[in-house]
Amino acid sequence: FSFGYDNEARSNNDIPNRFVVSAVWQPSVPSGLSKSAAGRAIFGGWTIAPIFVAQSGNVFSAATSGTPAFAISGGLPGSGACGRNLFYPRNSFRQPRIINLDLRISRRFRFTESTNLELLAEGFNVFNRFQVTGINFTQYSISGRALTFQPAFGSVFSAGNSIYRERQVQLAARFHF
Questions:
Q1: 3-state secondary structure (DSSP) of residue 146
Q2: Are the beta carbons of 135 and 154 closer than 8 angstroms?
Q3: Helix-strand-coil percent breakdown of the chain, rounded to 5?
Q4: φ, ψ dihedrals at 52, nearest 5°
Q5: CA 107 to chain centre
Q6: Half-sphere exposure of 158 (CA within 13 A, CB side)
Q7: Core-most of 29, 35, 61, 78, by most CB within 10 Å?
Q8: Beta strands at 138-144 and 63-68: parallel, antiparallel or unpaired
Q9: DSSP-derived 3-state class of residue 40
């Protein structure tokens, strides 16, 4: 069953706006301190590496759950087929956007030309922004002949996944030889 506009609907991977910028900055020792061994020891060897992501939210379709009267199986058609609400095109709704900043700061201490110790601090979701990754997509439930609107439609049921989580900080040390 199709209303004819399914082939023109959004893809499951539709993210029309995505901006990602990353940088690696190794600041130089201030010119007044570069001649001093203490100045080089304090201000040299730093690396700052941020990654910023801003993107449109993921798409989702309105769905209908339950089993109609005299149906063989669940879903609006009663055949166990897709429970997508047929009143809207596929993927016609969008989750909130994602904005995230990860940051790495490291300091390298050189012992010889080939050996050094690197101390690292990494922060993920530095501003601890609430990242919506799951939306309640059940718009209607059907039981027998009754079709009932679900007021929780479009509400958040999960935030964070393996990529976008609550703020996390990790510390590390690496010895290079």
A1: strand
A2: yes
A3: 5, 45, 50
A4: -115, 135
A5: 28
A6: 8
A7: 61
A8: parallel
A9: helix
Kind of pairing between the strands at 156-159 and 132-135: antiparallel
Neighbour count for residue 1 (Cβ, 10 Å) = 9
**Other beta carbons within 10 Å of 2:** 8
What's the CA gap between 97 and 80, in Å, rounded? 32
- Beta-carbon contacts of 31 under 8 Å, excluding residues fewer than 6 positions away, are none
For the stretch 133-144, pLDDT in tens is 889 988 888 887
What is the model's pLDDT at position 142?
82
β partners of residue 134: 158
Residue 163 token pair = 């990529």
Q: Are 81 and 65 in contact (CB under 8 A)?
A: no
List all residues 6 or more positions away from 77 whose beta carbon is below 8 Å from its beta carbon: 1
**Token digits for 95?**
């989750």
E strand map for 7-163: 18-22, 46-55, 59-60, 63-68, 93-94, 98-110, 116-124, 132-135, 138-144, 146-149, 156-159
Q: Distance (Å, rounded) from C-alpha 168 to C-alpha 177?
A: 29
